[in-house]
Amino acid sequence: MLLYVLFYSAALVSVVSTALVIASLNAVHALLYVILSLLASGVVFYLMGAYYAAMLQIIVHVGAIMMLFLFVIMLLNLGRRTLEQERKWLPAAAWRWPSAMAAVLLTELIFVLMQQEPAVLGHIVASKEVGIRLLGPYVLAVELASMLLLAGLVGAYHLTRQEVEK
């Protein structure tokens, strides 16, 4: 019973934070909500017994988003003036919703880790199954996604580079 409560509350956190991504006017706040949504969906995967998918969700998606955010900050070359502007834009009240939902996820994680038996609500997905699917019927989608990411990276570089005077 407790696992179902944890599952539905993690799913609710994911849905609410995704809705807040859409409703957020500030890009930094929207990014924080995206990260929270991805973490919540990682918890949902874990509770469903897809441990490998949960770790992929957290490591690849959340890690990739944070690296992309860092990459954008480095490309924009933000200075001290923007740091003061960020402080004005990000009051303490803006952290209420993300903090509350992150606390819910942390509480769920503690409850799951305190269980004596593994939290399995579904089929356990092994890394071999993921590899067979990715290199089998979904190989074209994986290759197209990698080309799309490469095109985005090259486009971002060319849009933000500054001409060097000789």
From TrEMBL:
Pfam families: Oxidored_q3 (PF00499). It catalyses: a quinone + NADH + 5 H(+)(in) = a quinol + NAD(+) + 4 H(+)(out). Keywords: Cell membrane, Membrane, NAD, Quinone, Translocase, Transmembrane, Transmembrane helix. One of its GO terms (cellular component) is plasma membrane. It is found in: Cell membrane. Its EC number is 7.1.1.-. The chain crosses the membrane at residues 6-23, 30-52, 58-76, 97-115, 135-159. The keyword Transmembrane applies. One of its GO terms (molecular function) is NADH dehydrogenase (ubiquinone) activity. Gene3D superfamilies: NADH-ubiquinone/plastoquinone oxidoreductase chain 6, subunit NuoJ. It comes from the Bacteria. The keyword Cell membrane applies. It is a multi-pass membrane protein. Composed of 13 different subunits. Subunits NuoA, H, J, K, L, M, N constitute the membrane sector of the complex. NCBIfam families: PRK06638.1-1. NDH-1 shuttles electrons from NADH, via FMN and iron-sulfur (Fe-S) centers, to quinones in the respiratory chain. Couples the redox reaction to proton translocation (for every two electrons transferred, four hydrogen ions are translocated across the cytoplasmic membrane), and thus conserves the redox energy in a proton gradient. PANTHER family: NADH-UBIQUINONE OXIDOREDUCTASE CHAIN 6. Belongs to the complex I subunit 6 family. This is NADH-quinone oxidoreductase subunit J.
